[in-house]
Structures are given as C-alpha cells and as structure tokens.
Amino acid sequence: MIFLLTPITLILIFYLIGNLFSKLLNLENTEKPIFALGFIVLVLNYGYFNLNLKIEIIFYFLSVLALAAIIFTIKSTNFDIKNYKFLIHIFIVLIPLSLIGIIYGEQYYVFRGNIYDHFVYLSSGLSFFNYDYNELSKLSIDGVKQSNNEFYLLHILNVINSRPSAQLFLSFLINLKFIDVIEINYIFKLIIFGLTFLSSYNLFYFIIKNREKSLLISLTFIFSFFYFYNHEIDAHSLLLSLPFFFLIIKYTIELKESLYNFNNIFFAKFILVASIYFIVYPNGGSIVAIPIFIYFIYIILKYKVDNLRLKKIIVFVFIFILLILPTYKTTIMYLINSEIPVGLSHKVDFWGYYGAFIFGKDNPVHNLEVVNQIKEMWASGNSFLNISLAAIKANVETGNIFFFLNIIPSIFGFYHFTTSDVYGIFNYFLFVFLIFLNFIIIKIYFKNIYFIFTKNNNLNLILRIFLFYFIIFFLFLVLKNQIWSAIKLYFILSPIFFIILILDLSKDKPMITKKYILFLLMLLPIYKYSQFNNGIGVLDSFPSIINKDSKIYTQWSVDRSKLENCKSLKYDLNDKFHKIYISLLFNHKKEKNYERICKISLEKNKFVLQYIE
Fold it and tell me: Is the pLDDT of residue 144 over 80?
C-alpha cells in the first residue's frame, strides 16, 4: 500500500503547506500543492548548495513547517472539507500505477526505460542524502576511498552540479526510513504523476470552464503517450518540471489582462513558477522562455504599455534573476558547459532508441543489425535524408509494409494502435482503422492550425508563436543532424501538441474536439502493461527498456535483511549496474548491526549473498 498511501499523504501535506501562503498569492486549491513543491525545491537547492546543509536537516525543517501548516489549517475559520475533494480524484488516478507496482513488483519498477539515467538520478539522490555539498565536492576531487562499499558514488561525482532538483527531491524522500531506496524512485514518479494531473486540470478548467470535461482531459494527458513516454524513459527532471509548465501556459494566457491591470500578485506567481521551472529543468526553461518572451514583447508593443508598467516588469525580471542566481552553477553553467554543446553540436546516437517508435511496434530500426547499419551511416556523416531512406528500406525488407500508416498515429499519441508482425491477419483490420485514424488526426490538426492563425484570442496567439518557434527550431536541429535534440524538443513541448489535438480551437471558448479521441489515447498503459515479461511489459519499439537483457537475465531482488547484516561488501559481479543496485541498497541504511564481510554474486540470474568473514 505504500505506493498508494505515501504519494497521496505527501500531496496532502504539500496542499497544507500551500495553505500557509495561499492568501498572499491568491492560490487556487489545485495550485497549492504545486507551489508547495516549488517551495521545497527552492529550499533544497538553496539549503544544500548554498548553505551546505545536510538533507536531513532540511527535511526536519520542512517537517516542522508541515506541522505548523496542519495546526494552521485545523485552527483556520475558513476550513472546509470540500476543498479536499481533489484528493479523491488523485487517489483514483494513482490506483492503476500503484497496483502495477504492487502486482509486478521490484522486477518492474527497479528501473524503466533508461537504466543509465535512472541509476544516476537515484545514486545522486542517495549521495546528497549521505553527504553535504562540501563533502561531495571534496570526494569528486580526491576520489572515493571505499569504492566497494560506496560503489554508487563512482559514476555520479562528475554530475553533482547537473540540474540536481530531481535528485534533491529524491534525497528528500529518502528520509522516509520505512521505504527502501528502490521503492523511493517509484514513489517519486507517482507523486509527480498526481501533481501533473492537478496542474493540467488547473489549466484546462481555466480554458474550458467545465469540471467534468477538464478532469477527463487531465486524466487523458497523464495516461497518454504525451506523458507516458517521459514516464517510461525515467526522464525525472522533465517529469518534475511538468506541473510547473502547465501553470506557465495558464499564466501566459492570462498575461495580457494582468499586464493591462497590472496585477502584482499574478506577476509574483508567474515569476515564482517560471524560476522554479528553470531551476528544475534548465533545458526546458531555456526553450520555453523564447516563445513566451516573443509573446510578451508583442503585447508590450501592440498595447503600448506605459513606462510605469515597464518599470514594474523590470522589477519582476530582477526578482526572477535573484531567484535563479544562487543556482547558477547547476543551471546556467550546466547549460553553457554541458547541455547546449551536446544539444547543438554533438552527434549523439540516442535517437535510434528514443525515436524508433515512429514507424510502429515492429520498426526494424530497433533491431540490432539495422541499428548497427544506421550507426555506421551516422558515423560516416550521411545526411538525415539518406539515413531515413535506409530506415524506410529496412522496414519494407522486413515486412513492416504498413509503416507509412504508423508514422502520424505514433507521433501524435496513438502508438498502441500500430501494426505488428505478431498480429497476423489482424493487421489488415488495423490497416483500415489506421487509415481512419490518420484522416482524423490530420483533419483535427489542419483545422486547429487554421484557426490558430486566423483567430486572435490569447490561447491561439500563444499556440501560433509556439508552433512557429517549434517548426524553425526543429528544422534547424534536423538539418544539423541533431535528431535526438529534435526529439527532446518535441517532448518538452508535448503539452502544446496535446492541446492542439484534443481541443476545438474554432470557438472563443474551446471545447473537447472528439471524446473518443481521449478514450483512445488513454489505452496506451493498458496495452503496454498487459504483459509482465520480466518486468518489461510488451516488448516492442516503444522506449521502455534500452537493453532487454538487463531485465530478462537478472532477477532484481536481494534479501534486504541479510544485506543489512554486512559491514562491508565484496563484489563478484561484472555488470556495473548490478554493483550500483546492491551498493544503493547497502548504503541506504547506515546503521550496521554486525561486523561481517559479505560477498555478492549472481548465480542463475539471482543475487546471492554470502558471509565470508
């Protein structure tokens, strides 16, 4: 039950903390937990990196704050049980993924799509928990002395300043001693899942002013491809940023009216959310800032904003700079030294894995032989056009003859309806359905894009700027052969494409374009988790597991109680991720009851622990 009760309890606590400054910022009920999360993110970043506080100390401080929030709420004359109805919705939303975690177990949730990033996030989180910043910085220079006992440290000391907010939040959760470190990661994802649902509901209710339909749309988003892609590849920083991105979209829509009347509270909220978004995910912050800045300048010029308002704007921009400045090493310098050079010039070949879904479930680009062929072409400097033609040829030669019908549905959220060689004659039924689906998707997008460019309400104008920006930036990246960066760009802006797909933008008050589209989108997790398959789910080209052998040939479980009796470890393991996994569990609880030296090995795909001294 920890996968259900822990996230809902923490979201309730976040809501209560949000009560403390709800009047000051005029927060809606669905905004309160998200602002509280943002406050926690700021405290963690400032406290750990600037004040060199241990995460445990910050946890105690926030626990006292939570206690004060509970007392404040109980004594408040405005207490109304109706304000907590949203918790029922979150509870229901969390049930499916909680049950998957409970039923499928550790083999499923030990890691999902990207074993590399997953263990970096978790190892960084445990490192932040066990060491203060000065200690970690010293270790990154001097090295780790007890490499066997603290193997998890070896591969993260060079990335402790790399957008660490998700890792800090993981370290914050590690203080929950009754949950082990591997389970903490899944609880992290469930918390963000619930908060993204709340944030998206906040946006869509603002747009369409209908509670039931807004709930349906928000439910669709979190269970659709647009969210689940990032959920499955363990993109922790992007996931943590999503609750803030939905509020940024909402506040941008409100910007014109708030600028005209100059609502100080509105701008304080906007700047606070924008700064947290940037701190959490500087990649996304730097991308999203440009179209919003263009829209902002357009409003200032079109409506001839006076000098008094301009001075106030400058003050709020200065506040934004002040908020992010203490994190400059982990955000601005990270972008300059790492993310921008990699994103714009390095020829990384991750796109073959992360983009293989585009041609459908049986895309041969996901197969090893074809992957090697594509990599050779990539390394030899072939153009993206030639590589694409080679991928198309591979699809035809391997019998994936319906791949051309899979492309548009895969890109826009209907990957689970693409064809597969295991379906046999059923592919011909899918062929007919895919023709219909392609027609519907194209019709919806063309119709909405037409109205985006012909109707000048706030939402349409913002979507127009985002579309122009995306097309120009996307083409630039593709022409530079930066395909992985182009894919990341799409998924950072995926809420924008989701909005265009599910809303009818021809009306001044947008409504759901086709309800059946929403229901079709929500079927992806049912398809993906319909098989256990060593914890992988359905094996296909969707980026769930980079190396399926890491699941198939390893039973990711070890006797925790026996491991806790060890004082030190010796590894008889060849795989570094096996060592990291054991090291994380071993170092999660520092208290050791026995002075035994233990050897850990892998026998018949199982971890075996032996006392050797």
Answer: no
